[in-house]
Automatic annotation (TrEMBL):
InterPro entries: DinB, DinB/YfiT-like
A Pfam match: DinB
UniProt similarity note: Belongs to the DinB family.
Signal peptide: none
Organism, scientific name: Hymenobacter ginsengisoli
Keywords, alphabetical: Metal-binding
Name assigned to this protein: DinB family protein
Amino acid sequence: MHTSSFQQNVLEELDRELAVTRKVIERIPDDKFDFQPHPKSMKLGQLGSHIVNLLKFKQLFVEANQRDFLDQNAPKPPPSPTTTAELLTRFDQFSEDLRQALRESDDQKLTEGFQLRRGEQVLMDRPKGGALRIMGLNHSIHHRGQLTVYLRLLDIPVPGIYGMSADEMGGF
């Protein structure tokens, strides 16, 4: 019988999702960073940066006990990349930082609480592992889905995510 820890399961899922997300980010053309499918939508470059910067947010869930959005001393995200190569460099670094934080954690630490706050207002209060899965992985998967729609609208072949894409199958 094979037993696996929660930490090991999250690392395995993270590795799979990161590999797929990297394939999607690789498709972003440098000359389309300003593409915006709707006035309420993020620009393509902003969306790509957000997906990458969420990796640091996930690391925070593992390493810290809280994050207050009103804390003026909290680290600010670095300036947004302006090329796909810069996005990928940051993605690779932030991915490795997150993996390392998870490897240094364990099931016990991942059951400790994490709060997302805005001053006195508690926006989220759950175990670190739950925060990582819900606000981390699921959040990134949501935005990766948005990114694939942007690619489709730009007629850029979409890589397979959970199986082959229509582009990989030759269309429908």
